[in-house]
Amino acid sequence: MKILVIEDDRTTGNYVAEGLREEGHTVDLMTDGKDALLQASTTDYDILIVDRMLPGLDGVSVVKTMRGAKNQTPVLFLTSLGGVDDRIEGLNAGGDDYLVKPFAFGELSARVAALARRPRATQDEIVLRAGDLEMDLMRRKVTRGGQHIDLLPREFALLEHLLRRKGRVQTRTMLLEAVWDISFDPQTNVVETHISRLRAKVDRPFETELIKTVRGSGYRIEE
Amino acid sequence: MKILVIEDDRTTGNYVAEGLREEGHTVDLMTDGKDALLQASTTDYDILIVDRMLPGLDGVSVVKTMRGAKNQTPVLFLTSLGGVDDRIEGLNAGGDDYLVKPFAFGELSARVAALARRPRATQDEIVLRAGDLEMDLMRRKVTRGGQHIDLLPREFALLEHLLRRKGRVQTRTMLLEAVWDISFDPQTNVVETHISRLRAKVDRPFETELIKTVRGSGYRIEE
DNA sequence: CTTCGATGACAAGAATTTTCATAATGCACT
DNA sequence: AGTGCATTATGAAAATTCTTGTCATCGAAG
Questions:
Q1: 3-state class percentages of chain A: helix first, strand second, coil last, to nearest 5
Q2: I need a surface site. Which of A21, A63, A65, B175 has the fewest CB within 10 A?
Q3: What are the beta bridge partners of residue B78?
Q4: Residue B217 pLDDT > 80
Q5: What are phi and psi of B91, to 5 degrees?
Q6: Which of A96-110, A143-157, B202-216 is predicted least confidently?
Q7: Nearest residue to B160 (alpha-carbon basis) of B185, B181, B178, B184
Q8: What is the CA B213 to C1' D11 distance in angstroms?
Q9: How far is the CA of B101 from the C1' of D30 (A)?
C-alpha cells in the first residue's frame, strides 16, 4: 500500500509515517501544501492522509485541486477536536473520511484499512444511523426522530465512535483509546460520565434506548 | 406591516414586539411552536421573527413545515452567539436571515426593513464578499483567496457587520451597538482590540488590506 | 509633539471536560 | 425472594481550556 502523508507538524507526521511503515506500507511524508500537490499529481498513491491545517496551501485546497484534476485517490483528513467547520469543509472538498486529533494509532490504522477496502465509495459513511437516530458527519449535526440534538465535542466524538461500530460492544478501554487517546488505564470514569450525559440527550427524551450497557464489558449501540 | 414574533422567552419577546409596535407595525407574539405554526398558516404575515430554540416544536421545524406548505413569508431567525449549527440549520430550513442574540433593537429594525424590501429574494445576502474575501453565512465559513480562516464568534460577528455595510464607515459607537449591544459609551477599546485581532487573521497574511482605518471616525471595508 | 489608533500581555468570564462522592442497579449466592 | 458485593449511573464540584475584555505601552498621523 502506497501512502502519502501531508502534515506540517513533524511530530505528528513522523508518528503517522513510522506507524504505517511498521505495518508494511510505503509512506512518503510532505510538509508543504504546494509540494504535496505536485507529488500527489505525479505519483500514484493508494491513500492520502492530509492535515486540514497546512501553511501555504491548506489541506482542503490541495484536495479540491486534486479532485478538480480528476484524481480519485481516497483522502483521510486529520482535523482538531473543536474544529467543526473543518470537517464540513474537508468532506465537502472531496475527503472520504476524517480523524480527530489527537488520535490513537489503531484508529488511524483502521480508517486506512477501511479506505483501502472501498477505493472510491465516498459518501456512504457520511451519515451514520441507528434506528431513528441520525448523525450527519458533514454538518456535524445529530437528530433523532427529526428533532435536533445539540452535542458537545466530546459527546459527539463518543457517539460517533459507537455508531461507527454499531452492534459491537465497545469496552471502556477501547473507548478511552479511541475517543480520549489514553492507552493505559487511569483511575477514571470519564467514559461512564459521558455515556450518562449522552443518554440524557440521546435516549432519555425518547421511547427506546439506543445506548445499551453490556454489564462487565462496556457499551453498545443496537443495530 | 404585519409581523409574527415566535419567541418563548417573555423578556425578549416583549422587547421585540413592543419595539416593532412603536415603529408602527402590527405585531403578534406567540410562545409555543405548535400554536405559532397554526397561527402562521391561518393568518397572512409579512414577516416572521422566529427564535431558533423553542420548547415543543423548535423554530427550525416550524419554518420547515411552513415552507413545505408553500408558505413563502420571509423569516428572520434569532440565534445565540455560540450556536454555529443553529444558523446553518436555520438558513437551510428556509430562513432568509438571522440575528445573533443579544442584539440592539436598531439592528433588528434594519433587518426587518431589508426583508420587507425584498419579499422573496432569499439566498442573496447569504454570501458576503469583499475582494477575494468570502464569508459564507450558511456554513459560517470565511475564506480569503480560497484559504480558510478560523474566526472566533465575536470576530465573525464584527466582520459580518462590516461586510454587510461594505464601503460605509462604521464608527466605534455603531459597532459597539450592533456587535456588542452596548448603547452608551463605556471606557473601552474592545473594538480596537477586535479589529486588531481580525486584521491579524484576515489582512496580515495577505497582500492587500481590506479593513481600513478612517482616522477620527472608525473603520470600513473597501468595496 | 500631541492625539488617536494598534497591539501584546494579562485577567476575567464562559464553556467544556474531568474528577469525586454517592446513589442505583444487576447479579450471584443463600 | 432476600442479602451482599460489584458494577454502573449520575449530580455536583473542581479543573481545564477557550474566549472575550482590560490595561499599559508602543507607534503613526496630523
A1: 40, 25, 35
A2: A21
A3: B51, B99
A4: yes
A5: -70, -40
A6: A96-110
A7: B178
A8: 51
A9: 40
pLDDT tens figures, A28-56: 999 888 888 889 888 999 999 988 776 66
Contact across the interface for B84 and A89, Cβ inside 8 Å: no
Contacts of A102 (CB under 8 A, 6+ apart): A181
Interface test with B, best of A85, A147, A155, A156 (most B CBs within 10 A): A85
Per-residue pLDDT of A115-131, as tens digits, reads 887 655 444 457 889 99
Cell of B164: 454587510
Residues of B in contact with A150 (CB under 8 A): 85
- Domain B127-221, CATH among 3.40.630.30, 1.10.10.10, 2.60.40.10, 3.10.450.50: 1.10.10.10
Assess if CATH 3.30.470.30 describes domain B2-117.
Answer: no
Helix (H, G, I), strand (E, B) or coil at B10: helix
